[in-house]
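Here's what a typical entry looks like (ATP:glycerol 3-phosphotransferase):
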Amino acid sequence: MSGIIIALDEGTTNAKAVALDAHGAVVAKCSRPLNIQTPREGWVEQSGELLLDASLAVLREVIKTVGAERVAALAISNQRETTLGWYRASGLPIGPALSWQCSRTADFCHNLREQGLDAAIKAVTGLPIAPLFSASKMRWLLDAIPNGQTLAAHGDICLGTIDSWLLWHLTAGQAFCCDESNASRTQLFNLHSGDWDDNMLQLFGIPRRALPEIRPSSGLFGHTRGLSGIPDGIPVLAMIGDSHAALFAHGLGAAGCVKATYGTGSSVMAPVASAQSAVKSLATTVAWHDGERRVYGLEGNIPHTGDAVAWMVENTGLSELPETELAQALNTLPASVESTLGVYFVPALTGLGAPWWDEDARGLIHGLSRGVNRAHLIRAALESITYQIADVVVAMRQHGDFALHALMVDGGPTKNDWLMQYQADLLGCPVLRSDVAELSAMGAALLARKALLQVDNTQLRAFLPEHCTFQPDMARHGRLQKRWFDWQNAVQLARAAK
C-alpha cells in the first residue's frame, strides 16, 4: 500500500488535500473554506497567510490519515492568476493576494490598450490585455509599498502565483519556482521561448529577479522542509493551474475533447497543436509541459458562472435553505417553468470575460415582467452559464486546430442535471460529466505519478475517471438558438451600461 500521492488543490473558495493510492483511487481528503474580501467595488482579494494556513492544515490532516510513511510525493493544483508578493527574507506578504477576479488594475490595462499594445502583447504571451492576468497585479503590489520597484530589482521581494507561494513555504524558502501553465497566465511569459520575456518585463515594470524559475509541470520542484506535521523530504513532483489539471484528468488532452470547468468562474479550454492563433478574443496558453513536451491550450475565461447562481440564490432568499435542499431546488425550480418569460441575466458583476473582455460592463437583469417569479430568475442565472460557455465555443471555432466532439465538464455546478442537459441541447453536442469532485487534484496527481514512475501518458490512461453522458436533443437545439441570440442582445445592453 505504498505510492500514495497527495494533491494539494488550492482554489478560490476552499483548500483541499486529496490522497490517491497506487491505483489512482481517492483514499483520504480534507477541505477548509477560504474567505474573499471586496474592500472596494471591483477589488477582490484574499489573505495569502490564510491561504497558506488552510493549505498546510488540510495537508497535515491527510498525511496523518494515510500515514506519512506511505506518501511518495506531493502535487499542487491552484487557482490561477491570483498574485502575491512577499519578502524574501521573512516570507511575509507585502500585501493581499490579488484574486483573479480583481479588476483594480482596469485603468492600467486601459492605458495599455490606448497605446495600441494589445496585438504586440498577445503575439508574445497569447493573452489579451485584461486585469484578470497577473502582470498588472504584480505591478500594483509593487506600487503599493514604499520602494517596491527597488526592493524587487534587488531580489528582496518575490512575486508569484499561488503555486510558487505554496512551494516556497513547503520547502522553507529553498525552492522559488512555478510551472509553465501558471507562468503562461501572468502575461510575462513568452509562449515561443518558454521563458520570461524581457519586453513584457519592461512594459509592466517587473524585475526578473523578483520572479520564480519556470519548470515543466511534471518533475521535481523541491522537498518539504521544516513544517510541523509534514515530514521533511517529501518530493513535490507536479505543479499546475487547476483548470489545466482538470483538462489533463479528463482525457490527457485528446483532440476534440473540449473542457469546461464550472466553478466560481469558468474556464473553457481546448487542446491545440501550436501557440499560433488568430482568435483575438481568446487566450492561447500552455496547457501543461508533461516533462516530455509542451501542450498548448485555447481558452476562454468567464469570471461569473457559479458565482452568478450564488448571487441570484442570495438575492432570492434561497440561501436560507440547507445545502441539500438548495441543491434540489436548483434542479427542480428551472424545470418547473417552461422558460424564463423573456428574462436574461447577464452576470457582469466585475465586468465580462471571454469573448468580450469588457471590464467596464455591468450586470443586468433584462426583460422583467409582472409574471416573473423566483423560478424564472434562478433559471435565468443557470441559463447564463450555458450561454457564456457557448459564446466561447463559437469564438474557438475560428481556430484552425479546433474540433469539438464532446464538451467534458467538471466542477460543483455540473451536479445539476438540468443545467447539463440544457448545455448539451444548446451546443448540440454530448456533454460528458466527470462526477469526480477532485478532478483538478487528480490531474495534478497524474502528472506527479508520471514523474515518480517515469512513464509516458499512455500508461496513465488506466487512472482516468469515468464520465456520465448527456446527449443533445437536436430538435430542442434548434429552438434554443433564438434564445441564445436574445441573450447576446442582452450582453450588448450590459456593455452599453458603462
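The chain has a mean pLDDT of 93.

More examples are in the samples folder.
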